[in-house]
Design a protein that fits this description.
By secondary structure, the protein is of the alpha/beta class. 28% of the residues lie in helices and 19% in strands. The protein folds into three domains: 176 residues, no CATH class; 106 residues, no CATH class; 110 residues, Dna Topoisomerase Vi A Subunit, Chain: A, domain 2 (3-Layer(aba) Sandwich), CATH 3.40.1360. Strands 1, 3, 4 and 5 form a four-stranded mixed sheet that branches. The protein starts with a strand and ends in a 45-residue tail after the last helix.
Length: 404
């Protein structure tokens, strides 16, 4: 029987969910699905690939997105200890580079990452003279020396701090696209997790801002768009980007605030926007599966769920949104996927409302058999404690134990 799940286990948590075919990795696993379309039944295969650190985690995500013989255009390298740099690198890797994203140390490239770079051997990004490796942020020149041993052409995009780095990446995108991006994401510099749900969005730049003032380099990026009338997306509530600052931003473009009192809340609101930035109405909640089909996917109803505080895992895995998942990013708590029936999970009722539509038999595919129980503590990586499905429910959450 065709295998559904192949488990790859990094050490920190991201959940990647595909509906109706389910792709889950939470707290210790990435699970890669293959659906058995003919019979509608699923089988399980569980080989172990332990991700012992962020370097190996990024390599596992790279192998998922670019298995042999596929090659990316390039590779984006970011430090494993800088959340802002990882966020910007993930955004850059998604679009326009079509790249894999890998973690490195400030002064060295781990052997497992070197091996992955050799395996990928990227084709080169044509609009930039065939650059194969992009080095993002404050990374030692030792890295470039190591890359030369692989005979790969590299380019560095520096930045003394996250605000300057985001400005420099914006300028770089201008150099390869011949014009500035018409859509700009403005992320609170003290809350980089607010930018995670927007990484899969295409055709935009990501800049950092403070709560009450526009940083000088961010202001320069906006002023350079004079006459373009860009759309500016403010990620976060008034607590993170003030209303008075929003009024100031209005001098440089059309303001769209994607509200959110925390990353979980913001991710749900951000999912209301399609990949082309067109906000939608109540149809998202009325018929989320068709929404995801029409606005995000080619032929599936998928989304990506991950833990906001585990940025070392979620940022390289978000590359999957490029064309493997094509769905919005939903941020979750580390305890469960579902807060119903007394289980911990999504912090707000809206999440349960959102998930309830996927359990409606009128909204699901005929062959879908998604199990209808929450992740429960006490499971083990060998799936030895399956959760009993609820009766008379076409959707079941099963074989999703909590990885301790």
């Amino acid at each position: 029987m065709t295998k559904l799940f192949t488990k790859v286990s990094p050490t920190s948590g991201i959940a990647l969910l595909m509906i109706p075919a389910v792709l889950v990795s939470i707290a210790a696993g990435i699970i890669i699905p293959t659906r058995t379309l003919a019979s509608g039944h699923y089988d399980f295969s569980i080989p172990e690939l332990q991700g012992r650190d962020p370097y190996e985690t990024s390599v596992l995500a790279s192998r998922m997105n670019f298995p042999d013989p596929y090659q990316p255009n390039s590779i984006v390298l970011a430090r494993d200890d800088r959340a802002h740099d990882a966020l910007l690198a993930s955004r850059l890797a998604n679009s326009p580079l079509n790249s894999s994203m890998l973690f490195v140390g400030r002064d060295h490239v781990p052997n497992i990452v070197m091996d992955e770079m050799a395996r990928l051997h990227p084709r080169g990004f044509g609009p930039d003279g065939g650059v194969q490796v992009y080095i993002i942020g404050d990374i030692s020149s030792n890295i470039e020396t190591e890359i030369q041993h692989l005979r790969l052409l590299s380019k560095r995009i520096d930045g003394a701090d996250p605000i300057v780095l985001s400005h420099n990446i914006d300028r770089y995108l201008r150099s390869v696209d011949s014009s500035f991006a018409a859509n700009v994401l403005l992320v609170p510099v003290d809350q980089p997790a607010f930018g995670l749900p927007a990484v899969p969005w295409r055709g935009h730049s990501m800049l950092f801002t403070e709560r009450d003032t526009i940083p000088d380099t961010t202001l320069q990026s906006l002023q350079q768009r004079n006459g373009l009338s860009p759309s500016l997306f403010l990620l976060g509530s008034n607590d993170y980007i003030s209303d008075s600052l929003a009024n100031e931003f209005a001098n440089y473009g059309r303001i769209n605030r994607i509200d959110g009192r925390d990353p979980f809340d913001l991710s749900l609101n951000a999912a209301r926007y399609g990949r082309d930035f067109r906000p939608i109405d109540q149809r998202f909640f009325d018929d989320p599966r068709n929404y995801l089909h029409d606005h995000w996917n080619d032929n599936r109803r998928d989304f990506i769920a991950g833990q906001a505080d585990n940025w070392q895992t979620i940022t390289p895995a978000l590359i999957l949104s490029r064309d493997r998942i094509r769905g919005p990013v939903i941020l979750i708590t580390p305890d469960a996927l579902d807060g119903r029936n007394g289980y911990p999970g999504f912090p707000y009722d809206d999440y349960n409302k959102w998930f309830d539509h996927f359990r409606d038999p009128n909204q699901r595919d005929v062959n879908a058999t998604i199990y209808d129980r929450a992740i429960e503590r006490g499971g083990d990586p060998n799936f030895s404690r399956p959760i009993v499905p609820q009766p008379n429910d076409g959707f079941r959450w099963d074989y999703f134990p909590w990885f301790r």
